[in-house]
Design a protein that fits this description.
The structure holds two protein chains of two kinds.
Chain A: H1 8-27, H2 37-57, H3 60-72, H4 78-96, H5 102-111, H6 116-128, H7 130-142, E1 144-148, H8 150-159, E2 161-166, H9 173-183, E3 190-194, H10 201-209, E4 212-215, H11 222-237, E5 242-243, H12 263-277, E6 284-292, H13 299-308, H14 325-336, E7 342-346, E8 378-379, E9 382-383, H15 387-407, H16 413-428, H17 434-441, E10 445-447, H18 448-467, H19 475-479, H20 482-496, E11 502-505, E12 508-511, H21 514-521, H22 528-535
Parallel strand pairs in A: 1-7, 2-5, 2-6, 3-4, 3-5
Antiparallel strand pairs in A: 6-7, 8-9, 10-12, 11-12
Helix pairs in contact in A: 1-4, 1-11, 2-3, 2-4, 4-11, 6-7, 6-14, 11-12, 12-15, 13-21, 16-18, 16-20, 16-21, 18-22
Chain B: E1 3-6, H1 10-19, E2 26-29, H2 34-42, E3 46-49, H3 54-62, E4 72-76, H4 87-94, E5 99-106, H5 109-114, E6 118-124, H6 127-137, E7 142-147, H7 150-172, H8 177-197, H9 208-220, H10 224-233, H11 240-255, H12 261-270, H13 276-284
Parallel strand pairs in B: 1-2, 1-3, 3-4, 4-5, 6-7
Antiparallel strand pairs in B: 5-6
């Protein structure tokens, strides 16, 4: 059966109408008020946030339009308020809603890996001509391994709706994931992508035509948030496989995402409720996935932001490595030269209540009992609306997804060596805080033999943790000698970044960029306590 | 509105009697009767599990296959259960039930049976379920408060047991009312740090689950943990259940880098590593600090 996204364009006007209608219905109840008061409140909130934003951005024309609206709100009658709200809602929905062109999809799937292929093709054409570029692309696909519960997910996609929720490290994630879905025999997903990503003409073309919808993160008002959630919910209700990044933004620290944003994930539950209300019992499945890069394109910018803001992530980084075509090209070529594969791992599916789902699509309790999912929505034998209950269900789901992210994290040599080197430095000066440690570590030389010995201890511990289902250790890390693993990590560090995180110097390893070391090693931050014990 | 009370314990019987007035009534089921429990759970959504400690985990595991998503559970806050879990964590790990509430406070089976004025706090992240419990249990002699911080209620209730051991020991040593009052206030301060450090909310420790239980123990100079403290002061050993709870709390405190001197000392007393007099001496000898 063809994925629903292939028929998206036929339904697009209808979807837009439904989203606008539902948003209007929701605004009728805004803030506990009733129209026209509730409409006035929603418009006022939008005007307040937009005026604040535009005052900072200097867009005078739009600013004046919003100011004018704000001035008139108090004098508008009920019909004018409703019409204005409907006009705005329709405008925003039109701006958000995506597009899917089956021809572009077929072209992408036949000629190039979706988006990623196009991205790298541009690089290769620029440097070595088309023929070399296509060869390099084939090599590239060998550098990305897609693994996990693929058979189960293929089966579930035939009768259920998948919501893929991956970790988020790079702006390349959505492109790489799009390719991996195809590679894994899974249907294409619709997903929300930051509007700033559409400005890249090449990637923007593919994103526009392959089901991505635009999310303008600068817009903070309730009307826009309501539109995004409603759009997501309507798509899920209609069976469109979807993809959200629950971490919200790329991980600035390099750590595996653990603080998840639940707004869009919650739409899976509300869509399930709505489906059941209509007698549609097709299930929605949550699919945690991890994207594991040996090198991260934007590592320098991300960790810089993390340290600068002392963990308070600025919401959007407008200008980073992703926006510089040359840098992306450089990254792509270097990625192809690595021995270590990038790994995309699709974990076991969950239902919208956070229960594990078996290969048959049935939800299971902790003792393996098959569960009747709809019962979670029942009170006194009937399905009952309860927003607080559903919000708590979604918080539980978020916790289960966060746990799955850890279980499905694939430890690559750069993470292993990054963690070991920085931990050794930390032990040498335990009184320093992170910032002081990173300021003073550059240039430190560590004996290679000791580094290898510690790396071996950590690897052994990770393998024991893998046996307990706590993390993934890939074959190349498991089977190679520890000397080879350390060498591979050092080679990888040296291949792309202007200044490598660390490099070999005779019989020692010298820390060159402690911030990068921190970024890559932080991938193992969640396991720091047991790993530290083996170095004690 | 049918209720099932799993656990033919004194508190189970008292709760069952009180809930039997709530609409469809309450059915009391013993732990060993699997068929009776299965029948009861098939016909009810509201369930009280009136076991504590290891018995709670045993009962949940025994009936796991009979629970479904619509079931709503009320469990007793206080002791940790098997696998170093708080009671609500045991429900999450052993059953498919999500809607959980924990009850704690200055009330016990005796108070419920005698109709002496008493009070409970019901902690739950599911407000509708907390209100159902409140409506069903509250009466002329029983105040029931809801609290949206179930984790805080559980940690406070567990710590209150440990604090009561310290208060009992202080009384047993004849340290005097000033020392006992100091122990009480320091216990509350430590409890607050622990609750907040482990993810609960500010203030929960000062409610019925924490200060309420501690104050009740001190004022009536009774209760299992308090008596355990008296026994420790006499140089006797006490049962393991309290040590398990103390050890789990201490481990969690260490995990998040919290200092918990009273907890550590009670842990050491319960483990037989230090006698009550020496424990008091060590606590008094701690470096001076701001309150």
């Amino acid at each position: 059966m063809q994925a629903p996204l292939f028929h998206f364009n036929d339904h697009r006007p209808d979807i837009e109408r439904e989203v606008v209608a539902r948003v209007m219905a929701a605004t009728d109840r805004f803030g506990g008020a009733r129209p026209p008061r509730s409409h006035q409140l929603v418009l006022n909130d939008a005007a307040y946030h937009e005026i604040r934003r535009l005052e900072a951005s200097g867009d005078e024309e739009r600013l004046e339009r919003w100011r004018s609206l704000a001035r008139q709100l108090g004098r508008m009658d009920a019909d004018t308020l409703a019409a204005e709200l409907r006009r705005l809602a329709a405008y925003y929905v039109g701006d958000v809603v995506g597009h899917f062109d089956p021809r572009v999809y077929r072209f992408a799937s036949r000629v190039l890996p979706v988006g990623l292929g196009m991205l790298f093709n541009a690089a290769d054409v620029a440097t070595a001509g088309m023929r070399h570029g296509l060869k390099a692309l084939r090599e590239l696909s060998g550098r990305i391994r897609v693994e996990g519960e693929l058979d189960t997910l293929q089966r579930l996609a035939t009768f259920g709706t998948l919501v893929v929720v991956p970790t988020h490290s790079s702006n390349l994630d959505s492109v790489v994931l799009g390719w991996s879905l195809m590679e894994a025999g899974l249907p294409p997903c619709t997903y929300g992508a930051g509007k700033n990503l559409f400005t890249n003409p090449l990637i923007g073309y593919f994103m526009r035509n392959l089901g991505a919808y635009r999310v303008d993160r600068r817009l903070k008002h309730d009307l826009y948030k309501q539109i995004l959630k409603t759009y997501s919910q309507v798509l899920l209700e209609r069976g469109y496989h979807s993809l959200f990044f629950p971490g919200g933004t790329r991980s600035r620290s390099g750590a595996v995402d653990q603080k998840l944003k639940l707004g869009l994930m919650g739409t899976a539950l509300t869509a399930t409720s709505e489906r059941l209300r209509r007698g549609d019992d097709r299930p929605i499945y949550i699919v945690p996935a991890t994207i594991n890069y040996p090198l991260v394109l934007e590592a320098e910018t991300l960790v810089g932001e993390f340290l600068k803001e002392a963990g308070q992530a600025r919401y959007i980084i407008e200008d980073d490595e992703f926006s510089r075509v040359g840098r992306v090209t450089h990254f792509a070529i270097k990625l192809m030269g690595l021995d270590t594969s990038m790994v995309i791992r699709y974990g076991a599916p969950l239902d919208v209540f956070g229960n594990p789902v078996g290969p048959d699509g049935e939800s299971r309790g902790p003792d393996g009992t098959v569960l009747r999912r709809e019962r979670y929505l029942f009170r006194d034998g009937q399905p009952v609306d309860d927003a607080a209950r559903d919000a708590e269900y979604t918080r539980h789901l978020g916790r289960e997804v966060a746990k799955a992210f850890l279980r499905e994290t694939v430890v690559l040599p750069t993470a292993l060596l990054g963690w070991v080197l920085l931990e050794r430095e930390r032990r040498a000066v335990p009184h320093l805080d992170l910032f002081a440690l990173l300021r003073t570590t550059s240039g430190e030389r560590q004996p290679l033999a000791e580094v290898r010995a510690d790396a071996e201890r950590v690897r052994t511990k990770l393998m024991a943790m893998e046996a307990a289902g706590e993390v993934r250790v890939p074959p190349e890390l498991r089977r190679q000698s520890i000397d080879a693993v350390v060498d591979e990590a050092l080679r990888t560090f040296a291949m792309y970044h202007a200044r490598p995180a660390a490099e070999r110097e005779g019989d020692g390893v010298v820390v060159r960029d402690p911030r990068l070391l921190y970024f890559y090693g932080n991938r193992l931050a969640a396991w720091a306590r047991p790993l530290r014990e083996v170095l004690a | 509105m049918t209720w099932v009370v799993l656990g033919d314990t004194p508190l189970g019987r008292a709760l069952s009697k009180r809930l039997s007035g709530a609409g469809g009534g309450a059915r009391l089921v013993g732990a060993t009767s699997k068929r009776a429990a299965a029948d009861a759970l098939a016909g009810a959504e509201r369930v009280v599990v009136a076991f504590e400690g290891r018995a709670l985990a045993t009962a949940l595991a025994a009936h796991a296959s009979h629970f479904e998503g619509h079931h709503r559970l009320l469990v007793l806050a206080g002791r940790v259960t098997e696998g170093a879990r708080l009671p609500s964590e045991a429900v999450g790990a052993l059953t498919c039930v999500r809607q959980v509430a924990v009850v704690a406070g200055a009330a016990d089976a005796g108070a419920l049976a005698s109709d002496r004025p008493a009070a409970f706090v019901v902690g739950s992240a599911f407000p509708a379920w907390a209100k159902e419990i409140q409506a069903a249990l509250a009466g002329p002699a029983l105040r029931v408060y809801t609290q949206p911080d179930p984790l805080g209620v559980e940690i406070a209730a567990a710590f209150a047991e440990i604090g009561a051991v310290a208060l009992g020991a202080a009384r047993g040593l004849g340290a005097g009312p000033v020392a006992e009052a100091t122990a009480l206030t320091r216990a509350v301060a430590e409890m607050e740090r622990l609750v907040v450090g482990l993810g609960g909310r500010v203030g929960t420790a000062h409610g019925l689950a924490g200060l309420g239980v501690l104050a009740a123990s001190a004022l009536r100079a009774d209760g299992d943990p308090y008596r355990a403290g008296l026994a420790l002061a006499r140089g006797e050993r006490v049962a393991d259940g309290l040590l398990e709870t103390a050890a789990v709390l201490a481990a969690r405190a260490t995990e998040v880098g919290l200092e918990s001197p009273m907890l550590s000392m009670v842990c050491a007393m319960l483990a037989g590593e230090v006698d009550a007099a020496a424990a008091l001496e060590r606590l008094m000898a701690r470096a001076p600090r701001a309150e």
